[in-house]
Amino acid sequence: MLKTLIVILLSSVLVNNYVLSRFLGICPFLGVSKKLDQATGMGIAVTAVMLLATAVTWPIQYFILDKVGLGYMQTIVFILVIAALVQMLELLLKRFSPSLHKGLGVYLPLITTNCAVLGVAINNITDGYNFLESMVNSLGVGLGFLLAMVLFSGLRSRIDETNIPKPFKGLASTLIAASFISLAFMGFAGIVDNIFG
Question: Where do the structural domains in the chain lie, given as residue ranges?
């Protein structure tokens, strides 16, 4: 059981990174990765929302929607749950960390529409994970999102300090850098299977 949980965790952080291999959550990845503190704050906030969303949506799916034959309402119900959780998180950040709340700006409410959060909640169900496996997978996906944000923030700060040709400034260099990080993470494919397989 422990081996399975470790494989799920490492796979979701490195191999199946939602941002770099599945391309989910690109909006905050590109928008909030200019400064390390904002990228870290967004990564932690998304991880918290993913864990909370999984803790709430998994029981809703199995104990309510499936029991009464409303499984087809999954997406709508999950979006409503995620929106409520994000509003709660926004209120908490505004109260206890105003600087982080201001730094995240418009991207904090956008966690509601972050397809990575909805994607992990739905994929936990479709992949057939039990509750513990779902929570571990959500933690791994959140940590993978945080890792991608922090790495990309560091890379973007280096790009900003570098004299690059004018046609590559701005969004072009950002997308090229993102593709390089994505290619680097592709190198992890198979490594988990080789270690634990």
Answer: 19-29+37-185
